[in-house]
């Protein structure tokens, strides 16, 4: 979430910057609600002051033997008005919170302008795609012919956009996972094992809720056996549970940076992707991912992004996979991101580069939603 104070003092400037990502901030509505909030706040303060003053007068009047019934009635009326003013103020603040919670992050100045992926900017390339003197088969043809990939079984067991991997292909997935975890341990990341189901607070903290609920798998509870009042969702990315490790925490500045890595299955409904990448292992409802997360001092956010991206690149370089580094334009970065790099690997079977990793800086956007703060010594948390 953007800083509410900044939204109040730099509203028009922020609205202009958000236009870069194609988002229109309703400035007039926010200004009107802010005016109402201030009005109700002043009214509540005035009523509270008057109520306190009348309450003090009751004691004096009683000591002097005066009839206090009129004063009691007046105080009662003031308190009723105060309750009404506070309720109105809370209702306005709730509306503002809903607007702020649905407002994306401001693109960093170094994020390129553009509307969609066609405007993303190539930063660099590594490796040279190999030329073959024969028709290259894609991963589906290669693995199905050997009995390693079974789409029909996946459809029978679940539905489309799932996969069954067998034999060497299943072993390769396991080996790649272990290779990545071990490599990132060398990079200084602490391995964590986290839940695959998360609550709404966790998803709100990282920005998936409220805007992207359609992309999530929600677990239906059996009321007879589950008395919990919390809805649970399958994780769309390990970013959610790993980042939420610091939700509602005040960290010692000396402990920063925190670097976590974890392997999880991920689950996405792929809403809005009908007809895209229906063949093979791309754009699946369930897939495996190794996630890196760094919790750093705000002033080192972009420095951490460069380091984390380099750690992801190291994996591809060790595997000898040609790739290119893309800086996503303002119209293509994610809701919570201020700057994003995509690593796109060359796929010989498609004769194209395809995204294999996405690395983002969120600055303080997620930290505010998570109420994650840090403190230097005995200083005030920030």
Shape: elongated
CATH architecture annotation of the largest domain: 2-Layer Sandwich
End-to-end distance: 15 Å
Mean pLDDT: 94
Class per helix and strand makeup: alpha+beta
Strand order of the largest sheet: 1-9-10-11
The tally of strands reads 12
Discrete helix count:
11
Give a quick account of the main beta sheet: strands, pairing sense, barrel closure: 4 strands, antiparallel
**The top level CATH class name of the largest domain:** Alpha Beta
Bin the helical content.
40-55%
Taken together, the total number of domains comes to 2
Give me the oligomer status.
single chain
* SSE series: HHHHEHHHEEHEEHEEEHEEEHE
The name of the CATH topology of the largest domain is BirA Bifunctional Protein, domain 2
Strand fraction equals 15-25%
CATH level 4 superfamily of the largest domain: Bira Bifunctional Protein, Domain 2
Explained architecture:
This protein is α+β, with helices and mostly antiparallel strands and 382 residues long. Helices cover 41% and strands 17% of the residues. It contains 11 helices and 12 strands. A hairpin with a 4-residue loop joins β10 (339-347) and β11 (352-361). The longest helix is centred in the first third of the chain and has 37 residues, at 27-63. It is elongated, with a radius of gyration of 27 Å. The relative contact order is 0.14.
